[in-house]
Design brief:
The chain has helices at about 5, 40-50, 60-75, 85-100, 110-125, 125-130, 135-145, 160-165, 205-210, 215-230, 235-255, 285-295, 310-320, 325-340, 345-360, 365-375, 385-395, 400-420, 430-440, 455-460, 470-480; strands at about 180-185, 185-195, 270, 305. The protein is mainly alpha-helical. Among the domains are: about 5-75, no CATH class; about 145-340, Neutral endopeptidase, domain 2, CATH 1.10.1380.
Amino acid sequence: MTVPSVVWFLLVTLISASPLSFKHLKHDTYVSSTLCTSVECLEAAYKIKSSLNMSADPCENFYQFACGGYVANTRIPSDKSKIGEMRGIADELHADTEAILESSAGDDDWELDEMVRQHYRDCMDQERRDELGNQPVVEIFQAIGGWPVTGGDNPNEWHQIQKSLSDHGFGMRSTILSVSVAVDKKDNTKRIVYIDQPSFGLSREFLVDEKDNPEREAYLKYMVDTAVYFGADQGDAEKDMSEVFNFEKQLAQASAPREARRDAEKLYNLAFLDQLQRLEGHPTEWKGYLQGLFGVQLEEKEKIVLKNPEYFEEVANLLAQADKAVLQDYLFFRAASQVMDSLDSRARDVKLEFKKVTRGVKQEEPISKRCAKAVGFQTYQDGLRHIANSMYVRNKFSEEARNQVLGIVTRVRQSFRNILNDLDWMDDGTKATAHKKLDMMLESVAYPEQLLDKDIMEKLHEGMEMGEGNFLSSKLRMNK
């Protein structure tokens, strides 16, 4: 990583250039005491110039003037739905991570590094994944009572199934209700439990739209095709998953649209665990339900924030009225959908047909990119991402570049301090508060030092086991 790649955008006002290609740039054309004439500056100038559309009138259409050249000269790859100016950096990053993952272990490597490389190799072994098919998931589903649409007669309540799926590594905390632990918005020294409306398998806006649209049709087809992939009869899948679709649509209708969720104060409704309403349809005992999902002990007076109390009450009515098998089918479908990309070629084809309509992609990403993300590179998902990031820092990161950027941050901080000191309209008390806030600002540049601490990384991954030769099983095990 180089400094020019971080700060090239600061050079816009320093250079004006109009070459047809960089190789035609002449150094003596730009010799001036006020202009940057380094190779990096000339490269940045050409990059900016090539993004412009000089035939457009900026007073009439500034977007076309500023970006017309980039839009005209840039092709969106068939495996992506959009592309941006960061593409080059992302491609460079992937090339670096692929080299790290495919390299042999060195003398300075950690034992944890081999765990990441093994997970990558398992992901890349498409022949083995095709051989296993859907069996790893089917075995889990059968162990917890079975998916009704595929012939299972499950006796469990919806919240029991949700917990069981979560225990097996499926991310089930945002299906019917969203439950999470995050920083308390009103006291950032503490964390608090949030209960909210969930995310949906399809954007809420499409689900609540009663007009026929290709996205809704594609989603229902995806539901049916997923059930059939896991063993359901085509006719049964069409009937049962249509009911599941209608149930999710009801959940979406009970939820609030994005524009109604802009006021942070309205999303902060404090309650205590023992005060949560026990409505028909809800889990029979909130403390046990939350402890089961989080795997920790909670106090009776544990603070809870209800971000959408109206949804909290309305979903109870929906749950109380819904057919038990429909609730079960919905939860199993949401679990299955999470792993379709990690199964065999047939499963990924089912998911790709859905993505073609909803995301505009025409084909999958190359398997090396998919697997690099699966082991923790360029992703915020849990699992091995911390050790993957550590591998990148240890192998590719420029300490010199990091120190230069830290120097820039230090100078900006000092400049702000000087401005505060020179203000004549601010009283001393307010200045003292401003200085205190400035001193408390953290500097997050490049990477945290903990990524280079082997002991911390080993403790973080202590007890984590990988199932060699079974990519999906390892992935679910890491999610527990």
